[in-house]
Amino acid sequence: MFWAPAAISIRRTWKRLLDGHCGIVNVNHRDKRFEEQPCQIAAVVPQGKKEDGCWTASEWLSRGEERKMAMFAQYAMAATEEALEDAGWKPTAFEEREVTGICLGSGIGNFDEVYDTVVAYDKGGYKKVNPLFVPKLLINLGAGHISMKYGFMGPNHAATTACTTGAHSIGDAARFIAFGDADVMVAGGAESCIHPLAIGGFARARSLATDFNDNPTLASRPFDADRKGFVVGEGAAVLILEELEHARARGARIYAEVKGYANSSDAHHMTAPKENGEGAYMAMKKALKQAKLPPSAVDYVNAHATSTIVGDAAENAAIKSLLLGPDGKKKPEDVNISSTKGAVGHLLGGAGAVESVFSVLAIQDNVMPPTINLDRLANGFDCNYAPKHAQQRQIDVVLTNSFGFGGTNSSLCFARHDY
């Protein structure tokens, strides 16, 4: 169901998240070119044996599959395998495969392949271009490989909307089901671009935390007064969405329901949100409207909060504007917010999917995951952010937010089944 820096497999990852573990490490050993960079850290999928909660491609893929797939697609394939096992859905009948689709995207995709091929072409020309270059480059091949492996013939869709990709994939998949295009959808996001050029690009844009190369686990600190920027992460998360009566008829385990999904645009700046969080506010407000729920019903907000100065403040302002008032909570400390990016970094196109999984598990286990590294709050940050420690509480309704470069915003509302 989920692969991320904390560990492979959803239950292992979830436990480590609740325990306050951080998967951010120094990456100088991966490539000497990181040594010249102001940011030398990332949240990486741990390498090693599957039984130890780590990643070895050969334990999940055949040699042919590994050769043909970009790394983000490999992660997506493995996450899909676990999700389908958990859901008990591996249909063989034509009629069932016909109504099963995929909606899975990536923000950047196969960055390594692009870089390596450009260098090889520049040095050796046409004959140095791998015949698989284009298929490994295309972001929709993540969904395509899943479709081919399992024979799913429903919608085959791939969103690529920067850091909103995972949330858009899940929301769009829910709408495919609502419109009758499918009964079951594999939905999520994947990313793997821990490359010196990719990290360098974000660093030059002044988006990354650069003061923590010697203390990587302290680098991502959402909502903290001393936050300096985000940390790039990699991984994948996949959910199996299913039409409710279809799920009931086969006795499927239902973790939660997708109650609302909405999008908005800042129409403001390439990389920065409006300081008042207007775009985020509109997305959350529309998601609750679709869910037919008042602000007072929201028990927990899984924030996008990436640990940037402007972004965290804007989202915090938007959440308070929405959830405080006559139809919402009475005081700021009643508003429950946390960001899991302190633990797993920012998975870019995979972030919205990862955080959707965390949101669903928060409902399932009635626990609010912690915001690690939260030592000191600045003015205006007066809600409950679950600093450093998970909090047990009744959680029936969750909003989870995702925002991306270009001003794209998305909010998903999950609720306990039959809430």
Automatic annotation (TrEMBL):
InterPro entries according to UniProt:
3-oxoacyl-ACP_synth-2, Beta-ketoacyl_synthase, Ketoacyl_synth_AS, Ketoacyl_synth_C, Ketoacyl_synth_N, PKS_Beta-ketoAc_synthase_dom, Thiolase-like
Which Pfam families is this protein grouped with?
ketoacyl-synt, Ketoacyl-synt_C
- A GO CC term attached to the entry: mitochondrion
Q: Which CDD domains match?
A: KAS_I_II (cd00834)
Q: Which residues form the active site?
A: 163 (for beta-ketoacyl synthase activity)
Output one GO BP term: fatty acid biosynthetic process
Q: Which PROSITE patterns match?
A: KS3_1 (PS00606), KS3_2 (PS52004)
- Ketosynthase family 3 (KS3) domain: from which residue to which, for each copy? 1-416
Protein name as catalogued: 3-oxoacyl-[acyl-carrier-protein] synthase
Supply the source organism for this entry: Penicillium angulare
